């Protein structure tokens, strides 16, 4: 797998070339740099809203992947499919749109991209990419509910933090679940709205 920002010249996006290019599995995925326009997002769920600040200066590719998927409606009607008390809640899998729980947690947008490990620790309220190992990021993300998760630091890209709605995160975390940490009642991400930078 190879993925780069602007693979033609390895430079960050600019006014003349405003795109990111990810090369994954022989495909080229291109999306716009939205980080100069937006720096926050609201994850609207059937249990309430979660507003997150995005680390546009520290995880540019990850933030833009998240924003582009959100703007395209990719996350609409997906579910938080994994909740672990005093640890985290996880969502962003397109396979959660149906009623079949058996494949929840295995979906992605059809490509993977590299980690962007930064200096932020994964603590309560952190927004990070879920992965299946190094450089396997796609669309799934999680929000930390533990005070700290040092065993995850350096292994997952931390690309934002909750600035309001942590009570909603706590409500989601407390939902009744089965033995696979899957909520018994649907926790739906209705959509994710991007918020313009001030």
UniProtKB/TrEMBL annotation:
Superkingdom of the source species: Bacteria
Any Gene Ontology biological process: protein folding
Disordered as annotated region, ranges: 1-21
Residue ranges of every copy of the PPIase cyclophilin-type domain listed in the record: 37-194
Single GO term (MF): peptidyl-prolyl cis-trans isomerase activity
Alphabetic keyword roster: Isomerase, Rotamase
EC number: 5.2.1.8
Polar residues composition bias: residue spans: 1-17
Reactions the enzyme catalyzes: [protein]-peptidylproline (omega=180) = [protein]-peptidylproline (omega=0)
InterPro entries: Cyclophilin-like_dom_sf (IPR029000), Cyclophilin-type_PPIase_CS (IPR020892), Cyclophilin-type_PPIase_dom (IPR002130), Cyclophilin_A-like (IPR044666)
Biological role: PPIases accelerate the folding of proteins. It catalyzes the cis-trans isomerization of proline imidic peptide bonds in oligopeptides.
Protein family: Belongs to the cyclophilin-type PPIase family.
Name listed for the protein in its UniProt record: Peptidyl-prolyl cis-trans isomerase
């Amino acid at each position: 797998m190879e993925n780069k920002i602007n693979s033609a010249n390895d430079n960050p996006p600019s006014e003349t070339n405003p795109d990111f290019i990810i090369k994954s599995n022989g495909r080229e995925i291109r999306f716009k740099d939205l980080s100069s326009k937006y720096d926050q997002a609201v994850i609207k769920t059937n249990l309430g809203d979660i507003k997150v600040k995005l680390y546009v200066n520290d995880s540019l590719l990850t933030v833009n992947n998240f924003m582009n998927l959100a703007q395209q409606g990719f996350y609409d009607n997906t579910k938080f499919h994994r909740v672990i008390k005093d640890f985290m809640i996880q969502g962003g899998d397109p396979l959660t749109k149906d009623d079949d729980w058996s494949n929840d947690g295995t979906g992605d947008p059809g490509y993977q991209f590299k980690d962007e490990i930064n200096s932020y620790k994964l603590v309560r309220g952190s927004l990070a990419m879920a992965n299946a190992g190094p450089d396997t990021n796609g669309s799934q993300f999680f929000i930390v509910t533990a005070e700290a998760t040092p065993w995850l630091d350096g292994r997952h890209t931390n690309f934002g933090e909750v600035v309001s709605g942590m009570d909603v995160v706590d409500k989601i975390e407390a939902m009744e679940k089965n033995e696979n940490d899957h909520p018994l009642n649907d926790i739906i991400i209705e959509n994710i709205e991007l918020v313009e930078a001030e």
